[in-house]
Structure formats: structure tokens, C-alpha cells
């Protein structure tokens, strides 16, 4: 398993007396698209927060490309190649659509501060390259018509797309999508499936996706695996078909039939 | 004429310091009520460089600014490391600037203590101020439109998202603070060589709060807003001398009114640009074209 791009090793976190994530171990191969599902409060988003180190793990280890990233700052982890979207959208509201994407492209400016003041030809060229790249990404998520719109003014579905473009702009090798289809209707879900599949095949990222819409997860993870998280522990791993027929999973989601009669 | 000169020079000095505060408060979202402290550090350093070491004025200004900028790390590094934000950071800067003022007040060697640093010549003339203001505005504009400036804006809008997108918060904030303190330091140097002496009493909390007021009135994420208000806030009390004792009352009232009706400030999010001039020009030329065509037909 040394080829895994991301491995979680017995990852555990306690919030006071609550064990939110309990000994989670999983491996993601480069270029893989896996789903992470589970009932509300199972600790799915907490796993993402642990990977990006916005929450400190209590024990266990996180290996990214073979190196431990448990003690890295979130921004350093992003620059190493793990990028994410948020369950509750977190764009920069007063910045334009274009600037939101641009920011992730130059999270570490590629010219020096003195060059910023006098804007040397090199700095201008870098700015131009950044602009082109941002437009390419916006085109990919079909937001090109909204380039100069303020992010806060976009409708909800487009804000989600913008978040994805911004996450891609950070040039990740692992993309964490936190409920990309939340609040979307069936048509929008279908568009989203297409978009995620396109991103996955075109960019070759490994993707972990948290999602509640079962048709989205089952469709996108058809060729790979789904992890089911319940009460902080991994309950089941398997292909969509295996997960759908797993009695433990059904129990976690729907509860148990009580034979009262 | 001398009187008008004085207003323009003092207004210009205030503008330079306010541009610094605009970068820190308006663009990076960090409130400072201690910029008078950075002005004092830069001012005294600049004065000592010129008077004791015969350094040319322009270079001394840069040294003063750099010194203020470096000193800002003393407060900035621990504050940002421990993630002090909002009011807490503002209080920290206030404490820092008051400490500087008190140290200067009680150090009689070299800086002259409460008597002030005297015997300076008047080097800050009207042309000097005009050039300094123009350069300050130009460089501030270059900074806020650069990739560094955009990172600052992102930090002010959503710190968590900015960090998750790979922005190094500590470094971004320290850069903003350094530049902001540099501006204040240069303004302090200019002030000293206009007044021909420096006294710790120049750099009280009133000056810091005046600078913050200029930025809050002028608008966040705007350079031109604080530019205008910083000048007006110096000029208006001068023009309305008879009104002087009501000045602070009017300030307070203005604060309340601005906060209620325009919380982003008068020119909040309005970036200095000449798009309006271009539109105007194109409209004008379009009309000319149309009339020329009409004439031809």
C-alpha cells in the first residue's frame, strides 16, 4: 500500500468526551474517486477537517504521498496538493468570481514583494499567465459569463461550481468535495455528476466525495469504492452494489425492524 | 499662502499615514489604534539619521520607514501567532504605541525626553510632500492590486477559507503590517522635518484614532476614500477654527451616522480607477464621431 496518495492510520479525534472519529483507516490511490457516506453526525466532515488539519487529531497519523502531514499548517497542506470545498459554501463574497479563482492560483505569490511594487515585466507576465489559467478553469465549470460578477451575487448552484473551480485552482493532486450536490434538484445533480466525472478524467485528481444524494454517489463511484462512516467508525467498504445490500449500512441509515408483533 | 501650504503639508502627511492604515485595516481587516507609535518610531529614527549621521533626507525617510516596519514585527509576530483578531489586536497595537510614547517621554539621552528632539531644520516643503504623496498612492495601489494585495483581501473576507486555499496567514498579515508601519514611519519623518522638532506628545492616541477614523469614513477596500477623508479631516478643522471645541462631538456623530447608513464607509469597495474618465472620454469621442458622420451625410 505504499503507492497510496493518502492513507489515514487509526485516525482518532475526541471533542471533550465525544469520540467524533474513531480509528479510521483508509487508503486512497492516485486518481481514484471514492465516496464517503454516512448518516448525519457520523464524522464525515470531521475527517476532512482532520486531513486539512483545521482540527488536530488526538491520535493516529495522516500520510500524504508517503509523508506525515499531521503537524503541517492547513495552508501548507493545501500547497502540498490537498484542496477542498466546503459543505456550507465559503467563497470570498466581496471578490469577483474571477478573483476567487485567481486567489487560489497565487496563494503563494510567484513574484517577490519588490516586484509587486514596481510591477516588473516578469511580474506582469506571471499575472497574465494566472489570468489565463483562471479563465480556463472558469470555462471548465461553465462560469465564464459571470467572470466579473461578485461571488456573493451568484445563485447557489453556481457558487458551488465556483468553489470547485477555486479548489482546482490550488492545483491539487487530491480533491476533497464536501457535499457538492447539497440542496440541488435532480437536473442540477445530473449536471454535477457530469462535471465531477469530467474533472476526474481530465485532471486526474484523486477525489474523495462526501455526499448524501445516493444516486450521485452510486453513479460516480460505480467503478470504485464507497466508505460508510457511522458514529465515527468505518462501518463498511465496498462497491456501490455491495454497500446497497449491506445489512449494517441499511440498519445505520434506516434503523432496525422491531418485531413487536 | 503659508497658511494654505501648512494645511496641504499636514494634510499630505496625514494622507500618507492613512494610506498605511488603509492597507492594514481596509484591505487586510486588522484594526489598529496604534499607528501613532509607528509614526513616532519612524519620525525619531529619520531625525536621528539626518541630524546625527548626516544621511540625506530621502534616504533617512526610507530608513525611518523600514525601522518602523521592522519594529512592527515585535507586536505583529506574537499577536498573529496567537491569532489575535479584531478588537484584541487593536488593543495590542494601542498598548504598543503608548509604550513607545512613554519610553520616548522618559528617555532624555539622544531623543530629548518630554522636551522633544529639537534643532531640526524644515526639510518637508510643499514639493516634497506632493512627490511623497504621489509615490505613496502609486505604491499602495500597486501593492493592493498585486497577488500579495489580493491575498490580504482574501484574509479580510474569510480567514479560514483563505488558509484552506493555501494562503499563509501569518506571512500575509506580517507583510501588510510591515508596509502599513513603513507608511506611518515615513509620515512621522515628514512630520518631524516640517515641525522642525519632534515631541512624544505628537504621537498620542488621538492621532491613531484620527487615522483609523479616516479609513473608516473613507471606506474599506478603497485607497481613494481614505485619501480624501484623511485630507479633509485635517483641512476642515482648520477652516472651521471657531468650531474647534465641537470637533470631537462632530466626529462621534459622523461615526454613528456612517456606521448606521454606510457600514462599508463612504467609498467602501470603490477602487481608485480612471474607468469613469475613460467612459466619459469614449462617450465624448463617440458623439464627435456621430456628429462628424452626420456632417458627412
TrEMBL record, chain A:
Q: Name one GO molecular function term.
A: ATP binding
Keyword tags: ATP-binding, Nucleotide-binding, Transport
- InterPro entries, per database record: AAA+_ATPase (IPR003593), ABC_AA/LPS_Transport (IPR051120), ABC_transporter-like_ATP-bd (IPR003439), BCA_ABC_TP_C (IPR032823), P-loop_NTPase (IPR027417)
Gene Ontology CC: one annotated term: plasma membrane
- Name any one Pfam family assigned in the record: ABC_tran
Q: Where is the ABC transporter domain?
A: 6-256
Q: What is this protein called?
A: Leucine/isoleucine/valine transporter ATP-binding subunit
- Give the species: Levilinea saccharolytica
Q: What is the lineage of its organism?
A: Bacteria, Bacillati, Chloroflexota, Anaerolineae, Anaerolineales
UniProtKB/TrEMBL annotation, chain B:
Which keywords fit this entry according to its UniProt record? Cell membrane, Membrane, Transmembrane, Transmembrane helix
Give the domain of life: Bacteria
The membrane topology noted for this protein in its Swiss-Prot or TrEMBL record is: Multi-pass membrane protein
* Compartmental location: Cell membrane
Q: Which residues cross the membrane?
A: 6-24, 31-51, 57-80, 116-140, 174-199, 211-236, 248-270
- Cite the GO molecular-function annotations of the record: branched-chain amino acid transmembrane transporter activity
**Which GO cellular component terms are attached?**
plasma membrane
What is the name attached to this protein's record?
Answer: Branched-chain amino acid ABC transporter permease
Amino acid at each position: 500500500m505504499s503507492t497510496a496518495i493518502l492513507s489515514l492510520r487509526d485516525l482518532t479525534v475526541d471533542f471533550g468526551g465525544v469520540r467524533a472519529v474513531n480509528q479510521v483507516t483508509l487508503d486512497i490511490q492516485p486518481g481514484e474517486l471514492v465516496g464517503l457516506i454516512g448518516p448525519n453526525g457520523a464524522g464525515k466532515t470531521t475527517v476532512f477537517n482532520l486531513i486539512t488539519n483545521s482540527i488536530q487529531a488526538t491520535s493516529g497519523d495522516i500520510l500524504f504521498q508517503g509523508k506525515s502531514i499531521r503537524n503541517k499548517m492547513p495552508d501548507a497542506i493545501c500547497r502540498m496538493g490537498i484542496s477542498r470545498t466546503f459543505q456550507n459554501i465559503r467563497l470570498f463574497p466581496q471578490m469577483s468570481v474571477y478573483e476567487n479563482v485567481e486567489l487560489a492560483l497565487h496563494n503563494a505569490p510567484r513574484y517577490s514583494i519588490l516586484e509587486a511594487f514596481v510591477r516588473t515585466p516578469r511580474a506582469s507576465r506571471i499575472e497574465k499567465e494566472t489570468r489565463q489559467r483562471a479563465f480556463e478553469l472558469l470555462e471548465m465549470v461553465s462560469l465564464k459569463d459571470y467572470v466579473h460578477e461578485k461571488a456573493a451575487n451568484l445563485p447557489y448552484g453556481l457558487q458551488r461550481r465556483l468553489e470547485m473551480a477555486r479548489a482546482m485552482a490550488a492545483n491539487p493532486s487530491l480533491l476533497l468535495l464536501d457535499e457538492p450536490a447539497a440542496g440541488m434538484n435532480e437536473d442540477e445533480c445530473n449536471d454535477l455528476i457530469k462535471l465531477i466525472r469530467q474533472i476526474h478524467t481530465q485532471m486526474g485528481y484523486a477525489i474523495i466525495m462526501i455526499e448524501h444524494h445516493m444516486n450521485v454517489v452510486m453513479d460516480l463511484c460505480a467503478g470504485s469504492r464507497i466508505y460508510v462512516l457511522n458514529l465515527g467508525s468505518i462501518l463498511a467498504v465496498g462497491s456501490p452494489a455491495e454497500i446497497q445490500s449491506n445489512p449494517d449500512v441499511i440498519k445505520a441509515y434506516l434503523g432496525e425492524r422491531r418485531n413487536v408483533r | 499662502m503659508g497658511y494654505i501650504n501648512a494645511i496641504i503639508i499636514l494634510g499630505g502627511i496625514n494622507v500618507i499615514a492613512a494610506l498605511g492604515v488603509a492597507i492594514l485595516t481596509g484591505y487586510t481587516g486588522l484594526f489598529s489604534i496604534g499607528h501613532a507609535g509607528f509614526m513616532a518610531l519612524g519620525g525619531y529614527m529619520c531625525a536621528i539619521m539626518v541630524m546625527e549621521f548626516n544621511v540625506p533626507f530621502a534616504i533617512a525617510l526610507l530608513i525611518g520607514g523600514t525601522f518602523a516596519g521592522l519594529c512592527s514585527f515585535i507586536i505583529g509576530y506574537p499577536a498573529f501567532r496567537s491569532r489575535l483578531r479584531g478588537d484584541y489586536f487593536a488593543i495590542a497595537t494601542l498598548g504598543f504605541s503608548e509604550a513607545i510614547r512613554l519610553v520616548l517621554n522618559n528617555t532624555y539621552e539622544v531623543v530629548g525626553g518630554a522636551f522633544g528632539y529639537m534643532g531640526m531644520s524644515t526639510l518637508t516643503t510643499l514639493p516634497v510632500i506632493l512627490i511623497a504623496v504621489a509615490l505613496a498612492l502609486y505604491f499602495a495601489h500597486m501593492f493592493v492590486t498585486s497577488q500579495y494585495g489580493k491575498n490580504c483581501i482574501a484574509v479580510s473576507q474569510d480567514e479560514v477559507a483563505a488558509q484552506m486555499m493555501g494562503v499563509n496567514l501569518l506571512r500575509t498579515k506580517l507583510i501588510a503590517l510591515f508596509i502599513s508601519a513603513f507608511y506611518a514611519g515615513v509620515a512621522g519623518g515628514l512630520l518631524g522635518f516640517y515641525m522642525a522638532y519632534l515631541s512624544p506628545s505628537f504621537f498620542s492616541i488621538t492621532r491613531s484614532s484620527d487615522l483609523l477614523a479616516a479609513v473608516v469614513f473613507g471606506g474599506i477596500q478603497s485607497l481613494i476614500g481614505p485619501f480624501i477623508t484623511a485630507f479633509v479631516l485635517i483641512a476642515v478643522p482648520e477652516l472651521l477654527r471657531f468650531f474647534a471645541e465641537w470637533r470631537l462631538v462632530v466626529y462621534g456623530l459622523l461615526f454613528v451616522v456612517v456606521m448606521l447608513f454606510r457600514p462599508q464607509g463612504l467609498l467602501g469597495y470603490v477602487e481608485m480607477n480612471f474607468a469613469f474618465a475613460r467612459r466619459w472620454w469614449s462617450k465624448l469621442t463617440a458623439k464627435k464621431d456621430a456628429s462628424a458622420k452626420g456632417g458627412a451625410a
